[in-house]
Amino acid sequence: GAVVSQHPSWVICKSGTSVKIECRSLDFQATTMFWYRQFPKQSLMLMATSNEGSKATYEQGVEKDKFLINHASLTLSTLTVTSAHPEDSSFYICSATLGSSYEQYFGPGTRLTVT
Amino acid sequence: SQQGEEDPQALSIQEGENATMNCSYKTSINNLQWYRQNSGRGLVHLILIRSNEREKHSGRLRVTLDTSKKSSSLLITASRAADTASYFCATDRYDTDKLIFGTGTRLQVFP
Fold first, then answer.
1. What's residue A100's pLDDT?
2. Does any CB of chain B come closer than 8 Å to the CB of residue A91?
3. How far apart are CA B74 and CA B63, in angstroms?
4. β-strand A10-13 against A110-114: which pairing, if any?
5. Most buried of A60, A101, B19, B61 (most Cβ within 10 A)?
6. B-contacting residues of A 10-49, CB under 8 Å?
């Protein structure tokens, strides 16, 4: 199956700083990438849908100025958590797809801890 | 919330036993998928069943779908300790490729 990578796999940052997480599709060009957030022992909650070359579509309740998404190419999307606070600590997972009716391929996730 | 519900929330069984997890969802769907997640890791795709299918098999996995009841079940036969993980169902609709995940079932298989 297709491979999606995330970098970094884990990051610790101080409150008030910004953190960038990269999501790459390694062996295919993804028309759409998705960003999810997962709290411990909970399910994945979709944060935003990202299409190459256009603005991301955010789910209700997700602050777009807080979670900046850039989808610069068909193989790379980035999520920047701006002015991070301890409540932003979570597991962030991206996925990539060739389009509707195609499987979503998930990255391994990035664990963010804000101290 | 559109999130699906899964039950049980947690399931503990012995190796060799079968494990059954159920998923209910709220809207009409295009596909329903099951994923596995080991602790602190990403998701592994297990199986996809389309809305016009009723049952699907893959190795030790058997998935059923009842669109009239808006529910699905995942059966893992002859479970192994390595099957210990969280299992999530996820649905997508005809008008979007977004996935809506269920609440998940944490499966523990004891050797």
1. 62
2. yes
3. 5
4. parallel
5. B19
6. 32, 34, 36, 41-46, 49
Q: List CB contacts (< 8 A) between B97 and chain A.
A: 32, 97, 99-102, 104
3-state secondary structure B66-91: ECCCCEEEEEECCCCHHHCEEEEEEE
Q: Is A93 on the interface with B (CB under 8 A)?
A: yes
The full 3-state SS of B9-71, as one line of letters, equals CEEEEECCCCEEEEEECCCCCCEEEEEEECCCCCEEEEEEEECCCCEEEECCEEEEEECCCCE
CB within 8 A of A47, min separation 6: which ones? A35, A36, A37, A58, A59, A62, A67, A79
Q: Tens digits of per-residue pLDDT, A79-113?
A: 999 999 999 999 999 999 887 666 789 999 999 99
For A31, B30, B84, B90, B100, the CA distances from B97, given in Å and listed in that order, are 11, 9, 29, 11, 10
Amino acid making up residue A94: C
- C-alpha B21/C-alpha B10 separation (Å) is 9
pLDDT in tens, A37-63: 999 888 999 999 998 888 899 999 999
The answer to whether the beta carbons of residues B93 and B29 sit under 8 Å apart is yes
Which structure tokens are listed for A80? 């920047």
Residue A84, SS3 per DSSP: coil
Place of tokens 């399931």: B11
pLDDT in tens, A10-26: 999 999 999 999 999 99
